Amino acid sequence: MAAAVIALPLAGAAFLLFFGKRMSKASAYIASGAIALSFLSGLILFFRMLGEPGEERSFVMKVYDWVNVGGIHGNGELLLDPLSIVMVLVVTGVGTLIHVYSIGYMEGDPRYSRFFAYLNLFCAAMLILVLADNLLLLFVGWEGVGLCSYLLIGFWFEREVAAGAAKKAFIVNRIGDFSFLLGIFLIADEIGSLSVTEINAGAATMGTTLATVGALLLFGGATGKSAQIPLYVWLPDAMEGPTPVSALIHAATMVTAGVYVVVRFSPLFVAGGTTALTVVAWIGALTALWAALMAAFEYDIKRVLAYSTISQLGYMFIASGVAGYSIGIFHLVTHAFFKALLFLGAGAVMHALAGETDMRKMGGLRRAMPVVGLTFAAGWLAISGIFPFAGFWSKDAILAVAWEQGEYALWALGLLTAALTAFYMSRMYFRVFEGDLEVPEGIHVHDAPRTMAVALVSLGALSVVGGFFNLPGVLTLEHFLAPVLGEPEVPHGVIAWALAGAALVVAFAGIFVARALYLQPEGDARRERLEKTAPWFVGAARSKFYVDEFYGRAIVAPGKAFAGFCADIFDKRVLDGLVNGVAWVVNGVSSKGRHVQTGYVRNYAVIFLLGVVVIASFMFLRVGV
Amino acid sequence: MSDFPFLDIVVFLPLAGALLMGFLPKGKVALLRYAALAVTAATFLVSLGVFANFDTSDSGFQLGSSAEWIPEWGVGYITGVDGISLWLVLLTSFLTPLAVLASWSVTERVKPFFIFLLALETGMLGVFSSLDMFLFYVFWEVTLVPMYLLIGMWGYANRIYAAMKFFLFTLAGSLLMLVAILYLYFAVGGEPTFNYQELLGTPLTLDVQRLLFLGFFASFAVKVPLVPLHTWLPDAHTEAPTAGSVLLAAVLLKMGTYGLLRFAIPLFPDAAREMVPIVMTLAIIGIVYGALVAIMQKDLKRLVAYSSIAHLGFVVLGMFVGTIQGMSGGILQMVNHGLSTGALFMLVGALYDRRHTRLIADYGGLAKTVPVLAGVFLFVTMSSIGLPGLNGFVGEFLILLGTFFGYQWWVVPATFGVVLAAIYLLWAYRRVFHGPVTNQANAALPDMEVREWLMLAPVMALILLIGVYPKPFLDRIEPSAEKVVSQLQDSSMIPGQVEEAGGP
Fold first, then answer.
1. Dihedral-angle region of residue A385 (phi above 0 means left; psi in -120 to 50 means alpha; beta otherwise)
2. Which of A154, A174, A564 sits opposite B418 (nearest CB)?
3. Contact status, residue A420 vs residue A296, Cβ threshold 8 Å
4. What percent of chain A has pLDDT over 90?
């Protein structure tokens, strides 16, 4: 059954890659059907699991022997436990909605069926990643989603920017994989196994230093996939892909893979003492703030959402870093709902505005497209952390658990980021949906078509109620995950209420400031005055703090120069020069070369053939005797 | 059944075909092509008999024959395959018909072209099957001439220079090997012999071992090639006709790695052990240096050529780290590289057939005009990059894992080669296939034709098979790999053996 969860979208992808071209529209239904069935299988597995007592909800299934040399087993083994089933439901559930949305969104694209093949392939790879009980198999999924990300970012490869963004995404992720691979080697050497369950069981025997190094090497891979400092730079560019891709891969699922890995291997991270987890939490917190700052100054609607994703992923790492693993997963789930919703809403806006992404050219769209406007508002309030929307519960829980661990600095950073989040998301909502109707010329705005509306409404509803999955009670997400991840330590009583209150206050503050700057008529003048107080900062934030430029000058350019030196100077001049020099000295190449030319070739051929015949007949004669 | 001389037939069938082709009229181009295809396809079919009769549990040599050839010199005709050479024989017999298919664009002097190609196949198969040093040397030299002629007569503009360079480099290397073989021949006490299995375990002083190892090593290192002996390769690859590039990369380079494995290590284990750090250093330099130089290439074939240097660096690294993972991975990676780089050369050839240029800058936006070819190209590229699920990953992973088990820190620069591979290949892919169609010459090109499918689909199938289910390969490789590993190790602890000491 667990294998079927993976096999369904995989089969869909294979079928569409081979036969999709001939069926256009039907390919969308085949792909959507495959992933919907996969979701159904996941649900069945989930309810079956609920039937088992809490401690017996972990199943390992061996599918087959894969790479198996000298006692190291890289096997096809699946692990079905509460953590993986939650991931399965998110991937297939949100995945199904996004497939359905794409039926309308991608209509008319010349590579329509190819798109759905890639989406299905992505889901299959992501499911391998979350279901693998073997680190090597997990890496298959890990790289598989990277490949699909590459294919889908570059889906409109005719555009130079899209092609460049796809390549950048793959290569930056490869740098993360470099670290990840070293982590795999270290773990395989120390534990003697690649099985996830055995690694977690044996992590304590590694010794603190090696466990820390191993954990941090895996986390290095996570900073690539989950777009954290210092490897986040590919994700904003990845917005060149079709918007459903941004929603599914670059918001709801693939980018959370790094969080999943940290949570999945939490015993390894813990085994190293506090160092590894502290690094995780701080990278998360700094990334959260850093990306939120960039989001606050960006005008491209998708790029704001991309920075926002980077920032929210940072929250998930904060949660994991303060040992609130199940809370990190909780935020992963709610974020999947509201961020997918926001992307799909942005996609609907772009769909209606002929691909426009500049927020300065939008305004007042709520009245022109009520379904999109209303659902987008739900996503906006959810990510801003307004009670009782989904984001409120999960973000508050992260801040609370950080406080409870005594990590007040992390808490403060998280709180500051929460204020910024509410600000930049309100800025977006006000600019796009409120105020006077503003659209590029000659465009008749239409609301989302039906397939798109279905996805928007479903995700909108989940963004409203998604937080209730973890309301204090018996059937909470935390409780469900506890057999794998343990119960997080959360504050109680007055402190809990005070922390929630603080989070709400800053959220409203952010909204209020955005309202003052972007919704009220005096907003323009106020912004101008404000920007004048620190123009250098505004400039830097708009230029993404020059990080791309810095990498370009500090790494890419010197690397290229060195490669150029190797290729053009050392290889061509030095080594080959030496060779040609020797040849010239012995007068080999220059004079002998001429003889090979046409007239002589036949002689060579004849002589060679004669030689072969002589040797061969000699052999046969001798052997025959 | 196993008494049937499958292996010997495989080796000599192409030569017999070449001789028969001598009687065909030289003007009938189609007939000549199909005749060559038939001979090579038949050879492949017979080689499946070798595969089918191979006994997985036997780590020794099988399926060969043994006879006297020049008894007064101690020269024998001795053949056989183990879990290492089996795959190289199969790789050769599998790829040669595809190389024939890739040669439809050869329109001049078609007859000698295919005759040389067939002669080359016998030479290559002989190299991998010989268990007599003299016989081995004969086959080794036999491969040299046809390849030289293929490059020199059917190559591109700068072919003469490239052919001569290839010839002289290889010849210089093999002369040193010849001296070493002869020394070994005379050094053995008692009846002189070229019989490889009898020469194994010849007691030699360390000094002698060192010298002889170097003799063999020189020849093989040129062939692999290891940096800095590689400069013949980019020229030869680039100037050779497609079939020549395919076989050069896929098979001829493997003669070098195979030689290290079959002769240099087992015959002189003490010297080999001593040389491990040096060889590993050269291998890692090859990985990084080959990749760096590949990044900057403007010519697609040159780029693939330098990528070969990097990939072969992985192979040599795996072979010398002295762990079973590294050795098995190195052996598997020989096959993997043959498949993926062979396919890359076929694809570059297919592009050349359409546009008559190898320059990356002349292309752009081809994913739009030839979408299927672009998809196939990406598939093979991913195999070469080492994407898990395809063949390259299995080999590279085992090599790097084995390297970590043996020499932890060395794995860091080697693993970085994986990042570099993504850079040079994806950058090239982006420039050739992505972006808008800027050059009108690229606007209307035919997509994959049936012949091209016939040559690429089998390779793609194997790329996927080895990636998803390498067990049939690894099961046969591991016992033979184990033997070589044990020669590289002191009798004490064997690294890389976890849980099950002593292997399966």
1. left
2. A174
3. yes
4. 74
Q: Which two tokens stand for residue B365?
A: 């936006």
Residue A604 has a pLDDT of: 55
User: Which pLDDT band holds residue B415 (cuts at 50, 70, 90)?
Assistant: very high
Structure confidence by residue, pLDDT tens digits, A175-226: 999 999 999 999 999 999 999 999 999 999 998 999 999 999 999 999 999 9
Closest approach of B82 to chain A, Cα-based (Å):
18
Q: Tell if the CB–CB gap between A68 and B498 is shorter than 8 Å.
A: no
- By Cβ distance, the residue of B433, B434, B470 closest to A67 is B470
Q: What amino acid occupies position A109?
A: D
Which one of A10, A63, A69 makes the best mutation probe of the B interface by having the most chain B beta carbons within 10 Å?
A: A69
| Residue B71 confidence (pLDDT) | 85
Paired with B388 in beta bridges are B390
Contact (Cβ atoms closer than 8 angstroms) between residue A167 and residue B427: yes
Inter-chain residue contact B161 with A593, CB threshold 8 Å: yes
- Which pLDDT value is given to residue B70? 84
Amino acid B501: pLDDT: 37
Reported as a single tens digit per residue, the pLDDT across A134-148 is 999 999 999 999 999
Q: Which of A70, A143, A563 sits opposite B503 (nearest CB)?
A: A70
Identify all chain A residues contacting B228, using CB atoms and an 8 Å cutoff.
575
Q: Which residues of chain A have pLDDT under 70?
A: 473-475, 583, 585-625
The pair of three-digit structure tokens given for residue A112, joined into one six-digit string: 């329509």
Residue whose pair of structure tokens reads 């850079």 in the numeric block:
B423
Q: Give CA–CA dist A599/A606, Å, rounded.
A: 12
Residues of A within 8 A of B296 (CB-CB) are 560, 563-564, 566-568
Contacts of A609 in chain B (CB under 8 A): 22, 115, 119
How many other C-beta atoms are found inside a 10 Å radius of the C-beta of residue A420?
22
Residues with Cβ < 8 Å from A289, sequence gap 6 or more? A311, A314, A413, A416, A417, A420
Asked if B498 and A143 come within 8 Å (Cβ–Cβ), the reply is no
Most B-contacting residue of A67, A209, A586, A617 (CB-CB within 10 A), to test interface: A67
Smallest CA–CA distance, residue B489 to chain A, in Å, is 15
Domain ranges of chain B: 1-267, 268-495
% of chain B with per-residue pLDDT over 70: 96
Compute the C-alpha angle B442/B447/B449, nearest 5°.
140
Chain B residues with CB inside 8 Å of A142's CB?
388
Q: Hey, what are A249's tokens?
A: 């891969």
Nearest-by-Cβ selection for A71 from B168, B408, B499: B499
Residue A111, pLDDT score:
92
Q: Distance between CA B286 and CA B228 in Å, rounded?
A: 8
Q: What six digits make up the tokens of B360?
A: 């990356």
Give the residue among A154, A27, A43 at the shortest CA–CA distance from A102.
A27
The whole-angstrom distance between B110's CA and the closest CA on chain A is 13
Output the pTM of the full model.
0.93
* The pLDDT value given to residue A475: 67
For residue A18, the distance in angstroms to the closest alpha carbon of chain B comes to 11
Q: Is A63 on the interface with B (CB under 8 A)?
A: no
The residues that bridge with B77 in the sheet, in sequence order, are B67
Q: Residue B431 above 90 pLDDT? A: yes
Q: Which residue in B96, B105, B125 sits closest to B36, CA to CA?
A: B96
Q: What is the mean pLDDT of chain B?
A: 91
Q: Which residues of A touch B161 (CB under 8 A)?
A: 589, 593
Nearest to B141 by CA among B154, B156, B159, B122: B122
Across the interface, whether the CB atoms of B401 and A604 are under 8 A apart is answered no
Taking contacts as CB-CB distances below 8 angstroms, the residues of chain A near B502 are none
Strands A72-80 and B75-78 come out as: unpaired
Amino acid A273: pLDDT: 85
Distance CA A58, CA A482 (A): 12
